[in-house]
Design goal:
It comes from Diversispora epigaea. One of its GO terms (molecular function) is RNA cap binding. This is MIF4G domain-containing protein. 55% of the residues lie in helices and 0% in strands. It has 482 residues and is mainly alpha-helical. The longest helix has 25 residues. It is globular, with a radius of gyration of 22 Å.
């Protein structure tokens, strides 16, 4: 995945501090105080404030829901935002930003949500685009490449929801790829930008191909020129020798092709292009609203600048593909996605995003990893069934929110919103029912892939140890056999 991120993110701070997550701090603190008997009336009031309820409503949107339930609840939350935005503008924008930056597995939901809101109130759509632009530029300024990827991915979903034009998305890509035109560009710098672009392209490629095929081909040609020159650059820094020394398997009898992750990602993108950019595992709730989304107003973004950073001298060498489970005998009847398939990258990338987002909270991390099948199309994972929801629906949260707010929020389940199609089935075309991933194997591979990462893991070993324990608890029915 994104091995070239800022090394300052490689482990927790030596002073014992940890990353601050807006989801965890106050709620964890309140629970601790209440358990010890320190809670008071004021604290309980803050916990149940309308702002807290709005935050909760956005955070749980899409959790453990079927595709049909996702569409239904996006409609309802869109109505809540339209009703309450004037009173809680700053809070709504902040929460949406935190959601797409810390819950990247649900970016497709938040993108569609903003698209529906943008139909009725383009000023809200413009504000979200501005917030996303500021977030991306800030990440680029700080060298926070992981954050830049997540913001760029949300721009891709805003393109799908017609909040920004496909040509605007291509302009963003072009702004980032100007890095490749710099004289004597460092490999770390070029590698990072190309990886960010390629990792977000599958989410929006169909729209780009449909609306701006010539510009898309130009972007791909620019990347192809870099990929072609990349091997020569590796040889110049003796990277091939180092790559061979860290390859998981050495010898003639290797279980899979020894390829580095950037090379593999380019192969996956090329195969996706040959398939006319169709990726069957992605959920596309926005596709059920295309007729009305086309009538919405689109918004422009400012030009992005990628500044140089001192740490760019680090992490210049390729990282090899790491796999553990390769074709067991008992899996002969299952058509698994091959590493050359873009689906292989997307699923693994999301798993690593979840680990990175929740490395301060192993319980939340294990929960979202367990629920990963709900973030992809049905049959993406074998031995899973997402046709029935497993948790309290957003409708119950909306009921609580309606009770707490001074003014009623009209979000009844049978409410009809003019111009919005609420009866069409979710878009799950081209799903191959005979193929799939094994969730527990993907999770274990990615965890150990980070543990064995050289020269050191991203986080302290105790985190991976604790996470594996939590995963074993939640997936005890299958993980014990892995």
């Amino acid at each position: 995945m994104d091995h070239s991120r800022d090394e300052s993110r490689g482990s927790r701070r030596s002073d014992g501090g940890s990353k601050k997550r807006y989801r965890d701090d106050e709620r964890r603190h309140d629970r601790r105080r209440e358990h010890r008997g320190y809670g008071d009336v004021h604290e309980q009031h803050v916990e149940d404030s309308p702002e807290k309820r709005l935050t909760t409503l956005l955070i749980i949107l899409g959790d453990k829901m079927t595709p049909t339930e996702i569409n239904k609840n996006i409609d309802k939350v869109a109505n809540v935002i339209l009703s309450e935005y004037s009173k809680y503008e700053t809070h709504v924008l902040k929460t949406i930003k935190n959601c797409f930056m810390e819950l990247p597995m649900k970016s497709f939901i938040y993108g569609t949500l903003v698209g529906l809101v943008n139909i009725e109130r383009s000023d809200i759509g413009a504000a979200v685009v501005k917030t996303t632009s500021q977030t991306l530029q800030q990440c680029l300024n700080e060298g926070n490449w992981h954050g830049a990827k997540l913001a760029l991915k949300f721009f891709a979903e805003l393109t799908n929801a017609n909040v920004i034009l496909p040509r605007t998305m291509l302009d963003i890509y072009d702004d980032l790829l100007t890095t490749l035109d710099e004289p004597h560009v460092k490999m770390y710098r070029a590698e990072t930008i190309v990886r960010i672009v390629l990792s977000t392209l599958p989410y929006v490629a169909m729209q780009l191909r449909k609306k701006s095929p010539v510009v898309l081909d130009s972007i791909l040609s620019k990347i192809e020129r870099y990929i072609s020159a990349r091997y020569r650059i590796i040889l110049e820094i003796d990277g091939s020798t180092v790559l061979s020394s860290v390859t998981p398997y050495i010898g003639s009898n290797v279980p899979y092709d020894q390829v580095d992750m950037m090379e593999l990602l380019w192969i996956q993108i090329q195969n996706l292009k040959k398939n006319d950019w169709v990726c069957s595992i992605l959920l596309k709730p926005w596709a059920d609203y295309e007729d009305v989304l086309e009538k919405a107003e689109q918004h422009e973004v400012d030009k992005f600048i990628v500044r140089e950073h001192p740490q760019e001298i680090n992490n210049s060498l390729p990282v090899p593909l790491f796999r553990i489970f390769v074709g067991s005998d008992d899996e002969s009847n299952i058509d698994f996605h091959q590493p050359s398939d873009i689906s292989f990258f997307l699923v693994n990338d999301i798993v690593e995003d979840i680990i990175d987002s929740f490395e301060i909270n192993r319980k939340e991390c294990s929960k979202y990893l367990k629920d990963l099948p709900h973030n992809f199309a049905p049959k993406t994972f074998v031995d899973t069934d997402i046709n029935e929801s497993e948790t309290k629906s957003d409708e119950n949260v909306e009921s609580d929110l309606k009770e707490d707010l001074k003014e009623n929020i009209k979000v009844e389940s049978d409410m009809d919103t003019p111009g919005w199609n609420k009866t069409s089935p979710p878009n799950t075309d081209n799903v191959n029912v005979n193929s799939g991933f094994k969730l527990e194997q993907i999770i274990v591979e990615r965890i150990f892939g980070q543990v064995f990462r050289l020269p050191q893991p991203r986080y302290k070993p105790i985190f991976y140890h604790s996470l594996l324990i939590e995963i074993c608890k939640k997936l005890s029915y299958s993980l014990t056999y892995v």
